[in-house]
Predict the 3D structure of the following.
Amino acid sequence: MKTDYIVVGIIQKIVESAMVVCDFSARNPNVMYELGIRHAFNKPVVLIKDRRTEKVFDIQGLRYTEYDESLRIDSVQKDIARIASAVTETAKSGADGLNSVVQLAGIKAADVPVGQTVSPDTQLLLSAIATLERRMDSVEIRDRSTSRYFRIEDEKVVFADGSEAKLNDFVMDRESKFVGALVDIHPMDEKIFLRHESGKIQPFSAFSLRSKGLTEVPF
């Protein structure tokens, strides 16, 4: 099997494995996509995430186990035990357990055809998807390596000059001109939203040159 077709083997393992542990820390798109495949077949899966990652709306109704993102030795042993317990409980629940949002919605799970093989056309398509995913990952890594003009900590924004702003605080640019009021914060997208005096709401990315020089209006 060619390297590009490795995605085929991954999908087969996702569907055929007796148990899957899904770590959706950092909300990796590939992980969420693979979780969706597992859910489609209503196969048992244990959800885990680090405590730093926010809940994912679409699956927040399902049980998950958290672990310390620092992976400190004094906490990791307890987390391992809790995750192992979650795996054991999920395995014991069998078909009676609630394994997916598909089951929760009352939708019939997908079936795996016996002896089904992947056609050359499908392999070619999956190969193209895998190549596209690699390119997207490289673009994301490149973007993350560029200058960052603010960072988000909990419910506040810390700008490059060290000033901090919370919701409803006023923000100005490097020329001390009023930009707008902070009305929303999206930590996962690393974006903030400012309402101008005209009432228009505009997004600002932490990596956009438009965000360079933003700072809180001092009072």
In short: The CA atoms of residues 50 and 68 lie 6 Å apart.
